Amino acid sequence: MAISLTYFDFEGSRGLECRLALAAAGVAFEDVRLSREQWTALKPKTLYGALPQLTDGDRTLAQSNAILGYIGRGHGLFPADPWLAAQHDAVMLSVEDVRAKLPDIKLLSEGEKKAAREAFAAGWLSQWATSVSAQIQGPFLAGEKLSVADIKLYVVLRSYLKGTYDFVPASTFDRFPKLLALYAAVEAHPAIRGYFAARA
Ligand SMILES: N[C@@H](CCC(=O)N[C@@H](CS)C(=O)NCC(=O)O)C(=O)O
Predict the structure, then answer these.
(1) 173 vs 121: CA distance, rounded Å
(2) Which secondary structure element, helix H or strand E, spans residue 61, and what is its range?
(3) Among the atoms of ligand 1, which is closest to the Cα of residue 14?
(4) 3-state secondary structure of 67
(5) Tens digits of pLDDT across the chain (200 residues)
(6) Are residues 146 and 185 in the same domain?
């Protein structure tokens, strides 16, 4: 198979968003899922020491947003208009900010963990949700057409709505109906449903 996507063997984060983008693009791909041991061996040979990586023929691309842009631009899942495209890039970069800003609570006491995550949910994360909501035309970011930025938003929201992060309740997003509607629209998209049905 000409295209392969390499990531860890779990259904989330940057790997999931690239797999879903390939599914939405209708691109058949080899879904390479590494064990920890395989990753340790491969890491020094990767472009940036991290995954996902996409291989298309003899070329390899890293960085989730670059991979999403490549898939999106090639398959009608990214705006053609340069301004709109830049706005979609900005939204995808903001999802990376969400990942970077989540307080790392490993070394904190129980009380400190709760306080740090609750302050994040009520503060930075809610401000981010307000800002992104204001840009959603509905149901998707740019209106009726799914884009790779919608898929990236879906994947990050999915982790919060599933309660992945301690002390950040799913109800944080109750005040953001446009974000929740975008989430539901991506989940209901036939290609996305097809991907999860095939994995079940
Ligand atoms: N900026 C990169 C970040 C990639 C990244 O941090 N990937 C994580 C998994 S989501 C990873 O490879 N972690 C394992 C490691 O760094 O050894 C991107 O957007 O693809």
Answers:
(1) 9
(2) strand 59-62
(3) 10
(4) helix
(5) 599 999 999 999 999 999 999 999 999 999 999 999 999 999 999 999 999 999 999 999 999 999 999 999 999 999 999 999 999 999 999 999 999 999 999 999 999 999 999 999 999 999 999 999 999 999 999 999 999 999 999 999 999 999 999 999 999 999 999 999 999 999 999 999 999 999 99
(6) yes
Q: Is the CB of 14 under 6 A from ligand 1?
A: yes
Considering the domain architecture, whether residues 46 and 96 belong to the same structural domain is answered as no
Residue with the smallest CA separation from ligand 1 atom 9 is 51
Chain-centroid distance of CA 184 in Å reads 15
pTM above 0.90, yes or no: yes
Query: Which two tokens mark 29?
Result: 């791909």
Check which CATH number belongs to the domain holding 116 and give it: 1.20.1050.10
**Nearest residue (CA) to ligand 1, atom 5:** 50
Ligand 1 atom closest to the CA of 15, numbered from 1? 10
- 3-state SS assignment for residue 144: coil
6 lines ligand 1 (CB under 6 A): no
Q: Distance between CA 105 and CA 136 in Å, rounded?
A: 32
- Pairing relation of β-strands 30-34 and 3-8? parallel
**In the structure encoding, which two tokens stand for residue 69, read together?**
């842009």
Number of domains in the chain: 2
